[in-house]
Amino acid sequence: MIIESLQVEKYCAESNNFTLKINFKRILSLKQLTKIKEVEKSIELSSKCVLVRDTKLDTIIHFYREKNYCLVTNAGTINQGILSLENILGRIEDE
Protein backbone atom coordinates (compact mmCIF):
# COMPACT_ATOMS: atom_id res chain seq x y z
CA MET A 1 0.00 0.00 0.00
CA ILE A 2 1.60 3.23 -1.10
CA ILE A 3 1.02 6.40 0.91
CA GLU A 4 -0.17 9.27 -1.24
CA SER A 5 -0.46 12.02 1.37
CA LEU A 6 -0.54 12.71 5.07
CA GLN A 7 -2.52 15.30 6.98
CA VAL A 8 -2.38 16.17 10.67
CA GLU A 9 -6.01 15.97 11.76
CA LYS A 10 -5.42 16.91 15.37
CA TYR A 11 -2.63 17.61 17.84
CA CYS A 12 -3.24 17.36 21.58
CA ALA A 13 -0.70 19.43 23.52
CA GLU A 14 -1.81 17.95 26.83
CA SER A 15 -0.89 14.38 25.86
CA ASN A 16 1.57 15.40 23.13
CA ASN A 17 -0.13 13.09 20.60
CA PHE A 18 -1.09 13.42 16.96
CA THR A 19 -4.03 12.10 14.97
CA LEU A 20 -3.00 11.60 11.35
CA LYS A 21 -5.09 11.04 8.24
CA ILE A 22 -3.04 9.01 5.78
CA ASN A 23 -4.31 8.71 2.20
CA PHE A 24 -3.45 5.70 0.06
CA LYS A 25 -3.10 5.55 -3.71
CA ARG A 26 -5.89 2.97 -3.83
CA ILE A 27 -8.94 1.88 -1.81
CA LEU A 28 -8.71 -0.84 0.86
CA SER A 29 -10.58 -3.90 -0.35
CA LEU A 30 -12.72 -6.23 1.75
CA LYS A 31 -10.02 -8.90 1.27
CA GLN A 32 -7.31 -6.59 2.64
CA LEU A 33 -9.49 -5.57 5.59
CA THR A 34 -10.19 -9.23 6.34
CA LYS A 35 -6.48 -9.98 6.19
CA ILE A 36 -5.75 -7.17 8.65
CA LYS A 37 -8.35 -8.62 11.04
CA GLU A 38 -6.78 -12.10 10.76
CA VAL A 39 -3.17 -11.03 11.25
CA GLU A 40 -3.60 -8.38 13.92
CA LYS A 41 -5.50 -8.14 17.18
CA SER A 42 -8.34 -5.89 16.22
CA ILE A 43 -11.82 -4.70 17.05
CA GLU A 44 -14.41 -4.55 14.29
CA LEU A 45 -16.54 -1.48 14.94
CA SER A 46 -18.72 -2.10 11.92
CA SER A 47 -18.57 -3.86 8.58
CA LYS A 48 -16.69 -0.81 7.30
CA CYS A 49 -14.24 0.01 10.12
CA VAL A 50 -11.60 -2.00 11.95
CA LEU A 51 -9.42 -0.69 14.80
CA VAL A 52 -5.94 -2.16 15.12
CA ARG A 53 -3.56 -1.46 17.99
CA ASP A 54 0.16 -1.41 17.27
CA THR A 55 1.50 -2.48 20.66
CA LYS A 56 5.10 -1.74 19.66
CA LEU A 57 4.45 1.97 19.13
CA ASP A 58 1.24 2.26 21.20
CA THR A 59 -0.86 3.68 18.38
CA ILE A 60 -4.34 2.84 17.14
CA ILE A 61 -5.11 2.66 13.43
CA HIS A 62 -8.63 2.99 12.05
CA PHE A 63 -8.87 1.11 8.74
CA TYR A 64 -11.93 1.79 6.59
CA ARG A 65 -13.36 -0.52 3.94
CA GLU A 66 -13.83 1.04 0.53
CA LYS A 67 -11.96 4.18 1.58
CA ASN A 68 -8.54 5.32 0.42
CA TYR A 69 -7.38 6.48 3.86
CA CYS A 70 -6.86 5.46 7.47
CA LEU A 71 -6.60 7.40 10.73
CA VAL A 72 -3.63 6.87 13.04
CA THR A 73 -4.30 8.05 16.60
CA ASN A 74 -2.14 8.32 19.70
CA ALA A 75 1.05 8.88 17.68
CA GLY A 76 3.76 10.59 19.72
CA THR A 77 5.28 11.98 16.52
CA ILE A 78 4.29 12.09 12.87
CA ASN A 79 7.13 9.70 12.11
CA GLN A 80 5.86 7.27 14.75
CA GLY A 81 2.43 7.28 13.11
CA ILE A 82 3.91 6.44 9.72
CA LEU A 83 6.13 3.70 11.19
CA SER A 84 3.14 2.19 12.97
CA LEU A 85 1.14 2.03 9.75
CA GLU A 86 4.12 0.52 7.91
CA ASN A 87 4.46 -2.12 10.67
CA ILE A 88 0.84 -3.24 10.28
CA LEU A 89 0.79 -3.15 6.47
CA GLY A 90 4.17 -4.92 6.33
CA ARG A 91 2.83 -7.80 8.40
CA ILE A 92 -0.19 -8.33 6.16
CA GLU A 93 1.94 -8.17 3.00
CA ASP A 94 4.33 -10.79 4.44
CA GLU A 95 1.51 -13.30 4.88
Characterise the protein shown here.
The protein is α+β, with helices and mostly antiparallel strands. The protein contains 2 helices and 6 strands. β1 and β2 form a beta hairpin.
Number of strands: 6
Q: Which percent band covers the strand fraction?
A: 35-45%
Largest sheet: 6 strands, antiparallel
Distance between the termini: 14 Å
Mean pLDDT: 87
Low-confidence sequence ranges: none
Helical segment tally? 2
Strand order of the largest sheet: 1-2-6-5-4-3
What helical percentage do the residues reach? 25-40%
The rounded Rg comes to 12 Å
Secondary-structure element string: EEHEEEEH
Backbone structural class: alpha+beta
Shape: globular
Secondary-structure topology with pairs:
Blueprint (H helix, E strand, L loop, with lengths): L2 E10 L4 E8 L5 H10 L2 E5 L2 E6 L4 E6 L4 E7 L2 H17 L1
Antiparallel strand pairs: 1-2, 2-6, 3-4, 4-5, 5-6
Helix pairs in contact: 1-2
Quick overview of this protein structure:
This protein is of the alpha+beta class. 28% of the residues lie in helices and 44% in strands.
Labels describing this entry:
single chain, 95 residues, alpha+beta, 6-stranded antiparallel β-sheet, 2 helices, 6 strands
